[in-house]
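Lab meeting, item 3. Inverse folding demo.
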């Protein structure tokens, strides 16, 4: 499912719901009571309609919320984890909770409708009416903090790209190594590029169509710092979740130019922690910015990295387009391996 589809479930805030109920109560058409001069019967008739309007509006909103949460529960685990990061709850847990509230709302409605019908004085009728409305509204009001978190999670998820493809390749690395520059060169995606860390704050997808073999999805991620998972900020954490849940393979980028933002050893530490996180998944190491790296330093650093990670990194310049055809070829081979097994 495309994340942007979540936008169709707009869930109201408490204030919006209150306003809507208020407006509907005012404009509700009240059917004429049986011909009677009985003032009490007229009053009951009008208040029952208004109570019904309130109940229906609250119930419809809870129903929409439940439908939204059920839809999220069926999404890719990547989105579910993002949802949990924001709300602290699994979507199924929340479905259960709001189903209970829906049942309670129905019970309150029936109880107070009955009380209004059987009340003996106008005063009692009004008292039951007010209490019923108050209790119905309080169900929603009491949950407004949780509903707000759900709304925020939905906004965030619905902005994320569609990541379905035949081969999902994640570009990872510390801030400023050139990840966004690379995805701009290889795909149609146009993320922002700047000389400041954490320019990329979310997950960005670009595609390479390789008909008839399939579609490669390249994913640009926020930069990762060299620190334990528990200390990562929410921006980095999105990158970690993408690596954990989405990737078929990972391109890990090093910036080896002499003025790089982070040292080689810092970049190696992040490489090692990603490797641990990925288990058996493949990481392809790349060294970027070779256009501004003197040759002797380039060889020295490539050898150093190879010795430690046991693989020769591919030297490229994302900006100048050096060796990008080689990189593209590697990705296409991986796609064929996956979609056309021998
Ligand atoms: N000389 C040179 N500069 C590059 C190259 N690739 C990227 N840069 C520059 O490095 C800086 C950072 O590039 P980005 O592509 O934004 O880096 P990023 O890894 O996406 O950074 P974050 O989003 O902050 O994690 C920009 O100023 C780019 O112009 C390259 O191959 N050569
Ligand atoms: Mg970036």
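The presenter then showed the designed sequence:
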């Amino acid at each position: 499912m495309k994340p942007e589809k979540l936008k169709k479930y707009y869930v109201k805030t408490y204030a919006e719901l209150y306003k809507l109920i208020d407006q509907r109560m005012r404009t509700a058409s009240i059917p004429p009571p049986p011909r009677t001069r009985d003032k009490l019967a007229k009053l009951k008739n009008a208040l029952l309609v208004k109570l019904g309007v309130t109940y229906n509006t609250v119930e419809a909103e809870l129903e929409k919320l439940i439908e939204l949460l059920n839809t999220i529960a069926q999404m890719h685990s990547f989105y579910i984890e993002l949802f949990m990061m924001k709300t602290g709850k699994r979507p199924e847990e929340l479905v259960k909770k709001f189903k209970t509230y829906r049942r309670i709302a129905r019970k309150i409605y029936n109880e107070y409708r009955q009380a209004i019908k059987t009340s003996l004085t106008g005063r009692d009728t009004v008292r039951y009416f007010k209490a019923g409305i108050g209790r119905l509204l309080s169900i929603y009001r009491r949950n407004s903090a949780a509903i707000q978190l759900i709304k925020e999670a939905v906004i965030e998820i619905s902005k994320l790209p569609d990541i379905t493809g035949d081969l999902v390749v994640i570009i990872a690395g510390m801030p400023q190594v050139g990840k966004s520059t690379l995805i701009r060169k290889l795909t149609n995606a146009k993320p922002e590029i700047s000389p400041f860390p954490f320019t990329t704050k979310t997950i960005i997808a670009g595609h390479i169509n390789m008909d008839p073999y399939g579609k490669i999805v390249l994913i640009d991620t926020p930069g990762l710092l060299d620190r334990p998972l528990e200390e990562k900020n929410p921006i980095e954490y999105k990158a970690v979740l993408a690596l954990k849940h989405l990737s078929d393979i990972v391109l890990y980028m090093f910036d080896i130019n002499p003025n790089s933002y982070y040292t080689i050893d810092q970049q190696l530490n992040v490489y090692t922690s990603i490797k641990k996180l990925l288990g058996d998944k493949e990481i392809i190491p790349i060294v970027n910015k070779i256009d501004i790296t003197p040759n002797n330093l380039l060889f020295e650093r490539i050898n150093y990295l190879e010795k430690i990670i046991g693989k020769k990194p591919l030297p490229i310049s994302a900006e100048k387009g050096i060796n990008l055809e080689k990189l593209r070829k590697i990705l296409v081979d991986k796609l064929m391996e996956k979609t056309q097994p021998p």
